[in-house]
Amino acid sequence: MTNLKPNAAEIKENLEIKLSRFFGCTSAEASKEQLYKATAMTVRDILTEKRGNFKKKVNQTGGKRVYYMCMEFLLGRSLKTNLCNLGLDKDYEEALSAMGYTLEDLYTCEPDAGLGNGGLGRLAACFMDSLSSLDYPATGFSICYEYGLFKQKIVDGIQVELPDVWLPGGDVWLVPRTDRVFTVRFGGRVHEEWKPDGRMEVIYEGAEELEAVPYDMMISGSDSEGVSRLRLWKARSIQNFNMGLFSQGQYARAMEEATNADAISKVLYPADNHTEGKLLRLTQQYFLCSASIQSIIRDHMSVYGTLDNLADKVAIHLNDTHPTLCIPELMRILVDEYFYSWDRAWEMVKEIFSYTNHTVLPEALETWNEDLFRLKLPRIYDIIKEINERFCREAWQVFPGNWQRISKMCVVGYGQIRMANLAVIGSHSVNGVSKLHSTILKDSVFKDFYRLYPGRFDNVTNGIAHRRWLCYSNPKLAGLLDETIGTGYRKNPVELAEFAKFADDPTVLERFRAIKHENKENFSNHLYRRAGIRLDTHAVFDVQIKRLHEYKRQLLNALNIIGIYLDLKDNPDLDIRPQTFIFGAKAAPGYQMAKRIIQLLCMLQKEINNSPRIREKLNVVFLENYDVSTAEILVPSADISEQISLAGKEASGTGCMKLMMNGAITLGTLDGANVEMQAAAGEENMFIFGLTAAEVEQLWLRGYRSVEFYSNNNRLGRIMAALNIGFGGESFADITTYLLGGAYGIADPYMCLADFESYRLAHESCIKAYGDRARWTRMALLNTAASGHFAADRSIREYADRFWHIKPIH
Ligand code: 26W
User: Fold this and answer.
1) pLDDT value for 255
2) Angstrom distance (rounded) from CA 654 to CA 229
3) What is the pTM (predicted TM-score) of this model?
């Protein structure tokens, strides 16, 4: 039995035991890395024990469980959150100080687990935190990628991708469960055979089989009994060495099978919002789905001994379409292996699954080539065909004769398998991630489905793990909140609203302002250590941190910066408030325009840096390799939060919520969650500009001619000319062509120029408001106070009540 609440002396003893057992040393001899690992191991033991207790309770009460399926979990570091959530940070600090270390020393030894691209993966990680903190029985399923999202190097302004080796150091959290291995089949041929007892048997011939090995990670709740489990699958070949071939001297071929299996869990696909239809990605998806569904079935059978009550005890959530093959996989197991009738199995499946959509960009909607799919997954293909046929018949009843509409909705059509349609058809609920986004889903992306299944569509606005993003990453602000409104908000984030009472309290305002400044100093020191860059902490910190994508419009921000730069070049004595624009962004490796925008930002940074008089007032900083841990230091220091996507394109955004909670003021369009943030914080506490989603739609239908916006605007004319000449010795004429559309081309679909003038004006008023320190601080405080709604605890309760129908186990 592990002691769940060890005191400092007991912790010290546990650490010595781990050090001696795993590294053959004492704390006096151990390196910082060894001590980090030993510390993590002791925390892991506590979590495993706690999870065991929790699981027992769930089994005893027969509680329903939720399984969260996601190709990505962007976890970042775990030691700090786990220790703080367990309430053991102070005792560990004491134990470690006796060994000459601080916890902070150890935290930095941990590599980020970057098993995700951006918003979708980070949301999954935030949700795991809330699930355990609210005592819901939950398991997340994903792939144990050997390499997470690439490490970004910037060489002469160009992004270069390096492999992200996270396992040495990250693997201390993983418990291999070699007793829970499952077999996953690919390829070959299938046929059905009727047995004398009237059952149908599915015979597989020539299929390739490989094993899925689970690695479990426990995620602690805060002030709760709940511990969530994240099960990550690694692929290995069953017979990883062909002895026959080996003895014939064919060494390389003997190894081949093992190498193929390896590839599946080798690396995370680095593109967000863009599918390539690659076979390896399909293989990864089915690998995840098949292993996880088998694991769910096994768990359930071991408790209940029957699948008849599966839908009462199990909810499975599809986080975007990437794990949609869970639907036909569960059908396969119910029908082929447990001999349920198709109709019964289908009813169960629909009751079990729910699906969240995270993007409306058409290039992100997943489809697979039908032939490729059939070859790789023959049985799943048959099942999808059957689902499709039955669906078409059902749709025919509602839209008789309307083949055009039905052919848009079906799963198999025009040689493609469409995952989003399958996800909608096989789930009982479908949701978007902000009010605006969910409305767009009903009005356009899933319009026909909405007519067919109106009750299936709903909204749950995203939320963030407020303990990680406020309490632990901004301890000074959390301290002020504890003193003023008490500690209740840590468990119940809506209590942050109480903070609004202090909006006119000069002492609290002054402390709030001072904390922001200290956080700016803190980030600035970090940047100096990491990149040798010194920042003026009295300048406005204007922050845009997110994946680099055209729709997010880092380019719009750059255009405005170029405008300010040209003003300063004309007149270096111009009386403007010093501003530092901070960017963090990774571009998908094959996304050329995104990479060019990174280069533009870097070249601007370089050129401005070479003008001593200008850099006193204007600075651009492009952070290399922006990741979760960098965000934790940067977010508390931001003054302005740039959320400037073209309206209608950003499903929700979650970075916007982290920044708001930490008292940054949003400069943004009416897109994604900004709309609801504005409603919560009040119009007067944000800077909103630009076209609305409806106006974008109209302009699109009318035909967007960027020249119209450009020819009337002298400032834009000068900015375009400057782009053509370039910065830091590099011309960006291609970007001008992109913005203006060239001779015949279609101009930038994200309409930067249409929003430029209103963006520029909004930015100007924002900077002006910053000059009024009292007004600004009041606005910032009110943003923190209004941010409680955007905590993941709220989102998870909504999912639990409305879609999963699960209850906390106390
Ligand atoms: C298949 C390639 C691919 C990979 C990832 C397509 C699409 C994705 C994700 C759905 C992209 C993504 O991360 N979307 C973001 O999800 C966040 C969480 O809901 C939202 O806050 C962001 O607005 C949305 O862009």
Assistant:
1) 67
2) 23
3) 0.97
